[in-house]
Each structure stands twice: as structure tokens, then as C-alpha cells.
Amino acid sequence: MMRKRHFIVTTGLLGLCLMTTTACGDAYWADTVMIPMGSVETKTPTPGSSAPESPAPETPTPKTSATTDMPEGFKPVGSVASGLVVAVPENWIALDLSKDDLEQGLRSSGLSGPALERAKQSLQALVDNRAIWASDPASTETSPNRFATNLNGYCQSGPKTTVDELMTSARTELEQLNAKVSEAAEMPIDSGSAGRVIYSFTTNGLTVKGTQYYVPTRDKTCIVTLSTDQDGKQELFDSIGKTIHPI
Q1: How far is it, in rounded angstroms, from Cα 179 to Cα 35?
Q2: What are phi and psi of 210, to 5 degrees?
Q3: Which residue has the higher pLDDT, 110 or 62?
Q4: Dist. CA 157–CA 98, nearest whole Å
Q5: Distance of CA 197 to CAs 94, 214, 229, 234, 238, Å?
Q6: CB 213 within 8 A of CB 195
Q7: How far is CA 102 from CA 1, 94, 120, 128, 201, in A?
Q8: Contact 36, 173 (CB under 8 A)
Q9: Cα–Cα distance, 82 to 245 (Å, whole number)
Q10: Within 10 Å of residue 57's Cβ, how many Cβ atoms?
């Protein structure tokens, strides 16, 4: 057997400054970070040999209002086309970018003019990857930076990997980007288990507190990123993270 380096490239954003005003300044859009979470090693068979077959995992039932035990006051976002379903608070703006209109959603969050155009450009990678996106419009009122607590999530195809491999890669890549990783560990979620990475990073005086969840399946890995500049959000983030279901 030989090892092949499989690069899991996250087109999600470490942090996204959605403002109802331009209080955060243009630089936050210019410095939005696109992070490679890469180089998970996977074994591939040498010529003439065959790889052992792994049993196919059960396909989880997508969360819907009719079938889920999602937290009270939450709603599902996602679809078969996006590859995952996640539950977010009902008062959040939520888009499935495999079918919903990004500009309309950003306008609903209070953006207009140049700020709207910058947001569309920054989020185009999420549209290209048929991601899900959600934002808490009320959070800008309690944020000292007018930063909206937000979520993005998508799935990327690739050979089966493990939570441990993903956590090792995530920690390494985040630290190379000068993010401070405070935790990287496996946690149970409704659909099985996920890797959770808690980190922070500072850009132009704004410290973003982020949590990423990695959910590997046989043929893809789903990655959900939650970002805020406020304290006390981890319980909410973990409530959301528990509802991640690859489909």
C-alpha cells in the first residue's frame, strides 16, 4: 500500500463581517481568509492489489420539521443538492446556496451598496460549492464591531478519512494562519460524531471567535464554520453543531 495526500480545501470563511453599516471598514472584506485545511493522508492500493471494502454507513435521515428532534425554536437549512442539513435558530437568515438567491439573502441581512457587492464577492466560493449560509441579524446590535454571528457549511467529496486525521490537519493549518487553537477534539452529534475545532484570530483589531465542525462520511467530508466576535456563544454553536447531518 502507498499513501496519497488528499487535500481537503475549505472554501468556507474563517470569519465574515456582515454589517448593517460600514463600521467594520472595507479592510475586513479584503482580509477575509480562505483556508486550506489540507493534506490528510489516505491509503491507496498499489497496482495489482485491491483495497479492503469498508461497509457502507447508514445514510442519515435529513432533519426536517416533521422528523427531527432539533432544538425548540430552530429550523433546518440545506438539501440533498448541498449535501447536508443543519438546524439554526428560527430568527436567523438562512440560505441554501444550491437554490436560494445570495443577493436577496444579503439584502435581508441589512447590506446594500458597496458592502453588499463586497459580500457577494467574498461569498461566491460558497455559491460555487452549493453551500449553506446563515446569519443572525440581531447580533450586530450587541456586537461592538457590528459583526454578525454567522455560519457557512458545505461538503467536499474525497476518500474516507477519520476525525483524528481531520483534527490534526485543521490544527496545523489554522496555526499556520496565526489562528489560536484552544481545542481540537471529537464530539458526539446526532448523526454520529464530528471533529470540533475552537479557535480565534485577529484582523485589523477585530478578534473573531470561530468553531468548525468536521463530519466525515465514506465519500465526503462536511465542514460547518460558525463565527462571532462575542463571548458566550459556544453553547449555541454546539447546539447547532449537534444537528449536522450529511445526506
Answers
A1: 11
A2: -120, 150
A3: 110
A4: 16
A5: 23, 8, 16, 12, 11
A6: yes
A7: 45, 10, 7, 11, 26
A8: yes
A9: 11
A10: 14
The model's pTM: 0.76
Instruction: Tell me phi and psi for residue 223, to 5 degrees.
Output: -125, 125
The contacts of residue 96 (CB under 8 Å, 6+ apart) are 77, 78, 79, 81, 82, 132
User: In the predicted model, is pLDDT for residue 246 greater than 60?
Assistant: yes
β-sheet bridge partners, residue 213: 196, 224
What is the C-alpha separation between 109 and 104, in angstroms, rounded? 9
What are the residues facing 9 on neighbouring strands? 36
Average pLDDT of the residues in 16-36: 33
Instruction: Please return the burial class of 168, using the count of CB atoms within 10 Å of its CB with bins 0-12, 13-18 and 19+.
Output: middle
* Rounded alpha-carbon distances, angstroms, from residue 81 to 97, 99, 127, 225: 9, 8, 12, 19
Average pLDDT, the chain: 75
pLDDT of amino acid 113: 82
185 has a pLDDT exceeding 70: yes
**What does the pLDDT look like over 66-88, one tens digit per residue?**
344 678 999 999 999 999 999 99
What is the reported pLDDT for 69?
Answer: 64
Collapsing DSSP states into helix, strand and coil, what is residue 22? coil
- Return the closest-CA partner of residue 225 out of 161, 179, 162, 178: 179
